[in-house]
Each structure stands twice: as C-alpha cells, then as structure tokens.
Amino acid sequence: MAARFLSSNGVLWGRCENPAGIGSHFDYFSSVNLRLNGGLDDLVSVDFAADFRKKPVTLNSSPYQLAKNVASSKLGLYFIIGGVASLIDVGVFVFLYEWVGVSALLSHSISIPLSAIYSFTCNAFFNFKTTDNLHWRFLSFAFVVFLGYLLGAGVIWLVEYLTPFGGTVGKIVSLPLVFIFQYYLNSKISFRAAK
To answer: Can you point out the beta strands (E) in the chain?
Structure first.
C-alpha cells in the first residue's frame, strides 16, 4: 500500500510505502498523524491505494468537507441548532433588556423558553430523530433547559453585579457553559434512543 500527502498548493509533501503498517482496516487520522508528526495544517488530501480496494480512498480536508462532516455529526448539528437558538435567545434578550428596558433576569426568562421551543423541535426531528414519546422527551428537555436557565442566570447575575460589564456580557459569557452542560444532559437523557 502507498500513501501520498498533498499540500494546499498541490506540491507532493511526502510518499511512503505501507504507512503505519496499515492492514485490512485502519484509522485514517492516526496513520496520517504518525507519518506527518502532527503537521496537518497544510494538508489538503491523503490518498491511500491498497491491494484490498478497487480504487483509492481519499481523505479530503477541504473547508466544505470539514463543514459537511461537522454538520453530519450529532454534536455538530446540535451546535448549529444551538447557534441559531442562541441567536434567537440573545436577540430577544437584547431587544427586551437594551431597547425595551426590561430587567436582565426577566429578559432572560422570556428569551430562554422561545429559543428552547425552537431547539427542541429541531433536535427531536432533524438531529437525534427521536420523535417517539414527544411529551416525555419535551418534559425532560424542559427540565434540562431549566437547569441551564439557572446556570445562565447565575452567570448573568455574577457578571452584572460583580463586574462592570453588565447583563449582556453576562449573557454571552454564559452561552458556552450552558451549551456544554445541556448537550451532555440532552444527549444522555432527553434524546436518548428508545431501547
């Protein structure tokens, strides 16, 4: 078996025979990392030609392929859906807090349920594809959202009252913490596949 490593400008970076002792099944990324010693920054594609295959296998790391791979994973799609839900959440929050003059915690209390309904619908039907027992899944999801709400409210309160930055910065600081917390719980509880 042979492997060719091509850089972004099309120059052949390297060639090796039987990289990393690859046999009938292999892990593309570990074999590439072994041969390139972690220098994947400029890597565009790796072509593997093996005796057991009829045609070469290409690992393409173009931005389009990377985006396609991320969007096809549950975490990636959860991130995209969560990104749109966050835009809804922050947009409603900023509108109410900055323009209308509603308090930060009340604005948070209104923006969270609106974004949660969007997020649940998209995750149930398009990401996890778990549409059985929707009432129970929604109750579980709502409980996870409530826990995330408490975490977010705590961060907003801390940033608003203990720093000079205010509620909007607190809201933005809370988003990654709430994302990680809620993804873990939702993937394990709310959207777990039925047995």
So the answer is: 2-7, 12-17, 43-49, 57-60
The DSSP secondary structure of 129-169, one letter per residue, reads: ---TTHHHHHHHHHHHHHHHHHHHHHHHHHHHHHSSS-HHH
70-91 pLDDT, tens digit per residue, is 667 888 898 899 999 989 999 9
CB atoms within 10 A of CB 136: 10
Going from N- to C-terminal start, the domains of the chain cover 2-61, 70-190
Which amino acid does the sequence have at 172?
I
Band of pLDDT at residue 94, cut at 50, 70 and 90:
very high
CB under 8 Å to 168, separation ≥6 — which residues?
A: 93, 94, 97, 98
Q: How far apart are CA 195 and CA 174, in angstroms?
A: 34
Predicted pLDDT of residue 144: 95
- Please, which residues bridge with residue 58 across strands? 47
Tokens for 187, please give them.
Answer: 């993937």
Q: Could you tell me the pTM of the whole model? A: 0.58
DSSP letter for 58, please.
Answer: E
From 23, 25, 28, select the one nearest 5 (Cα to Cα). 28
Question: Quick one: CA dihedral 125, 127, 129, 130, positive or negative?
Answer: negative
- H or E stretch at 112: helix 104-122
